[in-house]
Amino acid sequence: MKNSYEAIFGLGGKKKDEEKKSSESKPVSGENPIEQEQSSSELENATSIKKEISEITQGRNLEDLASEDLQKVLAKYKEMEIALGLPEAEPKGDVREQMLRAKEIMGDDFFAHEEIEKAFGFKVNPELIPEVPFSREDLERARELNQFLILRVDKTGDGKPLTLAKMNELLGGKTKDGSKALYADDESGSGKIEDDSWYKDEDFALKDVPKLSWALVSKEVISSSPDKNYLDQTSEIVDYLKNEVFKGKEIPVEFQSAISEFEKSKDGIEKLMNEDWEKAAEKLEGLAITKFTRQTPAEAIYDIFVYFQNKGERLLENMYTWTSRRSSDGELVLVGRFDSGGAGVYGDGPGGSDAYLGVSFSRSL
What we know:
Layout (H helix, E strand, L loop, with lengths): L3 H6 L23 H25 L9 H18 L8 H14 L3 E2 L1 H8 L15 H9 L2 E6 L11 H7 L32 H4 L6 E9 L8 H16 L7 H23 L1 H10 L1 H6 L3 H15 L8 E7 L5 E8 L2 E7 L8 E2 L1 E4 L2
Helix pairs in contact: 2-3, 4-6, 5-13, 10-11
């Protein structure tokens, strides 16, 4: 969706034909001369800002700009909105009220459309923002458990799928401090994944997108989850739900059903892990508890990028989280070690374990 100033001026330095008014022309009937002068001044300011944008873009499309230039253009667009007197788009009605309440509770651990814009450089259509599904009690408990609330979106401002690869492209392969976003970035400045990366053609990198939703996410992996295989990690997630997230209250029916499914399947999956690890990985991926409480690779990357671009603090800097997706060779994908060398993306069979491999908690219900 184009902003009003884009409709007037166009993008990428391409000008539209404009009718120039003579400075000596008389105001049309009924128009206040002072208002006309103000309107003319607004257009002059906006035209000047447009020229500055053209100098930055040099004829390139927004999607082709490096992250630094994109941020400059974004700032200029904001100036143009002000110059033209355009109102800032905001969520309306119940969603706006829910967001204000959530922001009050979560404080600086609240990441919504403005934070996404700061992270990736595109505007989120406020009309697409879903309702916040969490109660005040849910949010207060999440705050106590050192979780943050984040709005996940599935598309860029121009409607393109916000895949893991697209996120890296939008950042030009670099985070705001100039360090690598993904370890596998080709360092060309284009934000492309290097040709010899094992996952450059994987669906989880090129097709999967975050689910459009609000999510509560732990800043660290569940403390008891490292050095455990995928099945045992899932048991730790169940304990975390019972003893921490829903402590002292009734567990919602969706989670009760997911826990019951896991407990009935656990012994069979454990046996499969010794006999056919690929089938065991498929079973684990398909569990409702996996889908309800683990991030996808795209969501894990999205969360750590948005968090860092806004707060300058690294999540999963020295740890990996095991996600909910399998790679094409059947291994379960893990994401993390997000240090200055960029976030790593790897895979392992469900029977693997490591002191640096845990699981972050995430829920959208």
